[in-house]
Amino acid sequence: MASDDIFILGINMTKFGKHPDLDSVDLGAMAVKAALADGGVTMADMGILAAGNLLGNPGFGQQLQKQVGQTGIPVYNVSNACATGATALRTAIMAIKAGECDMGLAVGVEKLSGAGLLGGGGRKKSDDDTWTPDGRVGAVASVDGRIGTMNMPGVFAQVGMEYAHKYGGADAELFARISVKNHGHSTLNPLAAYTKEMSLEQVMGDMMIAYPNTRPMCSANCDGGAAAVVVSGEKLATLSDEQQRRAVKVRASVLTSDPWQEGCQVLPDVNTLTRQAANQAYETAGVGPEDLDLVELHDCFATAELVHYDNLMLCDEGGAVDFFESGKPFRDGERPVNVSGGLQSKGHPISATGIANVWEICHHVRGEAGDRQIEGAKVGLAHVIGLGSACGVHILEGQAA
Amino acid sequence: MSTATAQIPLVDYLVLGDNPHLVANECTSCGARYFDRRNGCAKCFAEDFKKVEIATEGEVTAFTIVAFAAPGVDVPFVAAVVNCDGTPVSANLINVEPDDEHVKLGMKVKLATKAMGTDSAGTEAVSFGFEPA
C-alpha cells in the first residue's frame, strides 16, 4: 500500500427502521462505537470528527462526542442534503490527505420514522388578507402545487419521465419492475427497514404518491445511523495484519455540485453532476464501470435508479432501459445494483445513507456479506445525490486476496 | 360599478392582460434564462439581464401526477416541464384529466390562466398553467 492512499479501517451501520426508544445521539453512538471496534481502534486514535444530522441539533457532532469521547479534536458538522453522509466521509478523507491527522471518523444519523412527505408545502399564511408579492418570484401565494411540484416523489418522477421522453422505452411498469428488483434484494439484508419481496402487481397496485411512483417505489423514511473510520496508508502499515487485510482502499472519493445546464433551475438536473462525479472517480481510481463488481446507487425513487444506470455509465448513453432488461443490475447479473435493497427497502435515514452505502460495498469486498455476498467482489461503487444538488461517489477496493 | 376587477399575478413573471404570457430574465452575455430575481448569471457570472417574452405554446417533456402532497395543496394535479420554443418552464397542466390516458409525454400545450380568488381589497389573483393545445 502506498503511504498516501486512504483506507476505510472500520465501518458500521445500525439496523435501519423504527427506533422509538433511541434518539439521534444513541444511534450515532451505536454506529461510532461499532465502527471503532470494527477497526480495532478507539476515540483516542481519531484526529477529526465529521458529523451529519440534518433534522437534529446543528451541533450534533459535539453532542455525540459527549457520549463517545471528548478528546478535543476538530469537529465538522456537515450538511449536504441526502449527500450529507458522503460529505462527512469525504471531509475526514480530506483531513487525512491534507496531512492534518492519520485517522478520522465520519458519522451520519437521522431520525426519520413517520416524517412523511419531504419537500414542498405552503408558506405560512400572512396576517394580512390581501395578495402580497413575496420572495424571489414575487409570489402572492405558495407556488407548490400551483406551479409544478416541489415534493421529492414528484420531482424525481419527472426526472425519470424526462429520461423516458428523451430515449423512450420506459413506462410506469418498467419503473415498478426496478422497485420489484430492489425489494427482492432486500430479503437478504437483515439490516434493511423492509425485507418483504413484492410482486409487480403489489408495487403497481399500492398507493399512488406521484405517478409513476407508488409508495413502495419511494425511499422509506426510517431511523438509522452509520459511521466509518478512515486511516492513511502510512498509518495502516503500522497496524496489525488483520487490520490491513480487512482495510478497504478508497480508490476514489469525489463530491460535485450541479453545473449550470439549460432548465436546471426549472427541474433539478441530477444527471450532469452524477456523470461528472463518476467520470472523475473512474479516472482517479483507474477503473471503469466494467470493473465494478457491485454498485450501490441513490434509488431515492424507482424513477431515479433508471437515470443513474446511465449517469454512472453502467450502460451506453440512452441505454438504461436495455441495461435493466438485460438483467445485469440484478444480484445474479453482471453488474449488481443495490443488492442491499436500496433506499426503497433498506431505507433512507438521510444523513446515514452516504456512509451506509459505503458500508454495503465494504461488506462485500471484505467477503463478509453472508447470504447476500456477491461472490468474489473486489471493487464497488457507492453513489448518493442530495437534491440542490450534491453528488458523492466513492470507489472502494478490498484488500483480502 | 366597473366590471373590471383588479388583478395580480401569482408570480411576477406572469404578465396578465389581453395576451397573457411569461417573461424571463435573460442574461445579456450568454442568453441563459431565469424566472427568479437574479444576483447574477449562474452560467457565465455576468450581471446584466433583459426581460424576454416566453412562447405561450410548448411540448411536455416531463410530467408527474401528484396524488399525495403537503397539507393545503389540492390533489391530484399534474406537474410538468414544458419546453416553450427552447425555454423549459415548470407548470401544472390544467383543463385535462389527471391520468396517463390523457396526459402524455410530448403532448402539445398552450398557456392558460386561472383565477385563484379575490382578497379583501377586491383584487383577484391569477395563476397560470398549460392546457392541451
Structural class of chain B: mainly beta
Give the biggest beta sheet of chain A: 9 strands, mixed
User: How many distinct beta strands of chain B?
Assistant: 10
* The CATH superfamily title of chain A: Thiolase/Chalcone synthase
Estimate the helix proportion of chain B, in percent.
Answer: under 10%
Trace the largest sheet of chain B across and list its strands: 1-10-9-6-7-8
Stretches of chain B where pLDDT falls below 50 for ≥5 residues? Answer: none
Residue windows where pLDDT falls under 50 for at least 5 positions of chain A: none
* Annotation, overall tally of beta strands of chain A: 11
**Beta content of chain A:** 15-25%
Question: Percent range for helical residues of chain A?
Answer: 25-40%
Rounded radius of gyration of chain A (Å)? 21 Å
Succession of helices and strands of chain A = EHEHEHEHHHEEEHHEHEHHHHEE
How far is it from the N-terminal to the C-terminal residue of chain A, by CA? 14 Å
Q: In angstroms, what is the radius of gyration of chain B?
A: 16 Å
The CATH topology of chain A: Peroxisomal Thiolase, Chain A, domain 1
How is the main sheet of chain B built? 6 strands, mixed
Number of helices of chain A: 13
Shape field of chain B: globular
Q: What proportion of the residues of chain B form beta strands (DSSP E)? A: over 45%
Mean pLDDT of chain A: 96
Short summary of the structure?
With 401 residues, chain A is α/β, with parallel strands linked by helices. Chain A has helices at 24-39, 60-68, 84-97, 152-167, 172-186, 200-205, 233-236, 241-246, 272-285, 302-311, 320-325, 342-345, 350-365; strands at residues 6-13, 49-52, 75-78, 103-110, 208-210, 213-214, 224-232, 248-257, 294-296, 379-386, 390-398.
